[in-house]
Design brief:
It contains eight helices and nine strands. By secondary structure, the protein is of the alpha/beta class. It has one domain: Rossmann fold (3-Layer(aba) Sandwich). Helix 6 packs antiparallel against helix 7. The longest helix has 16 residues.
Amino acid sequence: MKASNRQNKPAKIFVISGPSGSGKTTLLTSLIQDKQIGKLLVKSCSITTRPKRSKEREGKEYFFVAPKEFRRLLKAKKILEWTRYLGYYYGTPKEPLEKQLQGRKNVGLCLDLKGARILKKIYPQNTVTIFVLPPSLSALKERIQKRCRHTNPQEVAQRLLLARRELKAAGKFDYCILNQNLPVAFKELKSIFLQESST
């Protein structure tokens, strides 16, 4: 393919979804850090009202804002999609994402089912949706419990209930990846990216 044709191709939005503990964030991070893919893909940075954790950096993992500021941005239509999860708000800022698309840079982000549907509706020609499946519900439960050792049992139960609902919607995505073995799942994700970004 000629370089000029490559430059004229529209950028793609790769939306990765899946229940808590499925490994979607790990897979996206691995894709962005891959030597071959890293130059072709940037991570969308979401806005959240949850407190910043010790190792997180402003503008890297998230943009951290107060609930009042989140509502202001929402009212001003500066947030493309949003959700409320475990008491905190999360959203995708419109301006940075569109700036990347205009610069013909592929964008990767992890979203819930609603967010994936909304971006697919707003950018139907650009958005590729990928659902990450856990090996089984029991394996997912084990992963969630391991990740949430210091989380109250009620929150763990909420995550599992939400996971069961999310799994039912997997068939509506463009692609599904079974994350039973992380290197194998990553190889499949990388293959999907290379295929979609070349068309």
